Amino acid sequence: MQIYDVVIIGAGPAGLSAGLYAGRSRLSTLLIEKEKDGGQIVITSEVENYPGCMEEESGRSL
């Protein structure tokens, strides 16, 4: 049985960021996502007012 230092539930923007920081800290990390990496935003057709984006984009392009 594997024991992890960090378990992250959800591979949306916050979960992926948490996974990156945990990996940089050399922690044993498990990331759990039930659908596609990227979370809900990947299947969203139009995203407005996302921090750092000046134009409307699709979730997949982000």
Written overview of the protein:
This protein has one helix spanning 13-24, and strands at 6-9, 29-32. It has a two-stranded parallel sheet with strand order 1-2. The model has no long low-confidence stretch (mean pLDDT 80). It is an alpha+beta fold. 2% of the residues are buried. The protein contains 1 helix and 2 strands. It is elongated.
Whole-number radius of gyration? 14 Å
Instruction: Give the strand content.
Output: 5-15%
End-to-end C-alpha gap? 36 Å
**Mass-distribution shape:** elongated
Work out the helix count: 1
Widest sheet: strand ordering: 1-2
Main pleated-sheet profile: 2 strands, parallel
Low-confidence parts: none
By secondary-structure content and strand pairing, the structural class works out as: alpha+beta
What percentage of residues falls in helices of 4 or more residues?
10-25%
| Mean pLDDT over the full residue set | 80
**Helix and strand sequence:** EHE
List keywords for this structure.
single chain; 2 strands; 13% strand; 62 residues; alpha+beta; two-stranded parallel ribbon; 19% helix
Gist?
Helices cover 19% and strands 13% of the residues. It is an alpha+beta fold and 62 residues long.
Write the layout of secondary structure elements.
Blueprint (H helix, E strand, L loop, with lengths): L5 E4 L3 H12 L4 E4 L30
Parallel strand pairs: 1-2
